[in-house]
Amino acid sequence: MRNIQTQEQLDEVRSRLDAIGRQPDEERRREAIHDPPSIVRTGRPPTQRLTGPTEGRPRGGGANIQPPPASQSAARNRCGLCHQHGHNRRSCPQNKEGY
Questions:
Q1: Please, how many CA atoms are within 13 Å of residue 8, restricted to the half-sphere of its CB?
Q2: How many whole angstroms separate alpha carbon 78 and alpha carbon 85?
Q3: Beta-carbon count within 10 A of 78 CB
Q4: pTM of the model as a whole
């Protein structure tokens, strides 16, 4: 900028700088923007696979992390001897051996 002495030289420098500033915009307009290539992964999609009991929240089905409430678990107990609900073989009133 120190070598510029006349208005003509200043106008010439400005026009060159403007041309340089517009050049990337024109190049961007000419280039077409494409979608990224799609990747086909092998195996079951992670959202559809069954999760194990030690993994976090169930995604596609599988383990439930929270145990059932105590009132429901007592109703599910069924004795192997008398097949009644609420106790097991060890605490069955009909068990004479004490298993």
A1: 0
A2: 4
A3: 13
A4: 0.25
- Residue 51: beta bridge partners? 62
pLDDT in tens, 41-99: 888 777 666 777 777 666 655 555 566 566 655 557 888 889 988 888 888 988 877 55
Residue type, 91: S
Task: In whole angstroms, give the CA distance from residue 18 to residue 22.
Answer: 6
Question: Could you tell me which residues come within 8 angstroms of residue 90 by beta carbon, excluding any fewer than 6 positions away?
Answer: 99
The pair of structure tokens assigned to 97 is: 């051996």
62 has which bridge partners? 51
56 CB-contact burial (10 Å; exposed 0-12 / middle 13-18 / buried 19+): exposed
Helices of type H across the chain: 7-30, 70-76
